[in-house]
Amino acid sequence: MDVQPILKEYTTYLQLEKSLSILTVAAYTSDVEKWFSYLSDASISYLEAKPEHFNDFLVELAEIGLSARSQARIISGIKSFYHFLIFTDQLEEDPTDLLDLPKIGVHLPEVLSVEEVNLLVDSIDLSSVEGQRNKAIIETLYGSGLRVSELVNMKLSAIDFDRGVARVDGKGSKQRLVPLSEEALVQISQWKLIRNEMKIQKGHEDYLFLNRRGAKLTRVMILIMVKKLATQVGIEKTISPHTFRHSFATHLLEGGANLRVVQQLLGHESIITTEIYTHLDVELLRDTVLRFHPRNQKTTP
């Protein structure tokens, strides 16, 4: 979908109706272009965007380490764009009405417990083609800490089943190797058997995860699947595919993993970005100090 005409209309609106400065107009336009880039990857029109898409976009902003101020500015720009669509009668209802601006820190999804992850996985109906695929997806997301964009673009040829690793394309087209858990490898192998019987669309032959029409999945398809599973098992937390990445990192750190190792697994260039995943339980932190700090060790006389 060509978005340049609507961007031009929006720019004119900001200049003439709102009388904003050239710099402010440029900033607002840049914010909307970021939103359009996300929508393009998800194959969604800006006129069809739903609240869950905005929330997923917020998660992506947090994931790259943007400050609350930067997140709020981008969301303000997007809100302004949808106000423009209402003003020009291109939409009847504003989908950003209930979208809250980040107030402090970064906007992160809640962490699932190990029991909740197990509950989700065990609830999947494996009698359907999508069931086996969905189980492989959840095991891969949670077992490797992948971004959902990395998952949908994962290639079958990039998986080394003997070594238990996969090559993924991260942000900025930077490649890295990620380990795959034993369970993820098992479920992917089961999915491969089903996948081999499918009629695959031209150009999608090497993508690991496909929809029923033989084309690669979109991020929104996975978001819908995850939310549906959560509803089915009664999990009331607000979760998205990114929740599994956050849970992966948090559970590793809670288990004693080195922060630098987790940084490498997640594909973060800066350790500062990884530190947003260290929201460990206060009792766990206190227990660690009591157990391991030399001042708390009992000595024999």
Core attributes:
301 residues, mainly alpha, DNA polymerase, domain 1, hpI Integrase, Chain A, 2 domains, 3-stranded antiparallel β-sheet, 13 helices, globular
What does this entry look like structurally?
By secondary structure, this protein is mostly helical. The protein folds into 2 domains: 84 residues, DNA polymerase, domain 1 (Orthogonal Bundle), CATH 1.10.150; 170 residues, hpI Integrase, Chain A. Helices cover 54% and strands 4% of the residues. The chain has 13 helices and 3 strands. It has a 3-stranded antiparallel beta sheet with strand order 1-2-3, with no helix packed on it. Strand 2 and strand 3 form a beta hairpin. Helix 1 runs antiparallel to helix 2, helix 2 packs across helix 4 and helix 6 packs antiparallel against helix 8. The longest helix is centred in the first third of the chain and has 21 residues. It is globular, with a radius of gyration of 22 Å. The protein starts with a helix and ends in a 9-residue tail after the last helix.
Short précis:
54% of the residues lie in helices and 4% in strands.
The helix/strand series, from N terminus to C terminus, equals: HHHHHHHEEEHHHHHH
Number of strands: 3
**Content-based structural category:** mainly alpha
What quaternary form is this? Answer: single chain
Q: How many structural domains?
A: 2
CATH architecture of the largest domain: Orthogonal Bundle
CATH superfamily of the largest domain: Intergrase catalytic core
Strand content: under 5%
- Give the number of helices: 13
Sheet with the most strands?
3 strands, antiparallel
Q: CATH top level of the largest domain?
A: Mainly Alpha
Distance between the termini: 77 Å
Spatial extent as radius of gyration: 22 Å
Which strand order does the major sheet show? 1-2-3
Could you list the spans in which at least 5 consecutive residues all have pLDDT below 50? 280-285
- CATH fold-level assignment of the largest domain: hpI Integrase, Chain A
| Range of helix content | 40-55%
- Choose one word for the global shape: globular
Mean pLDDT: 82
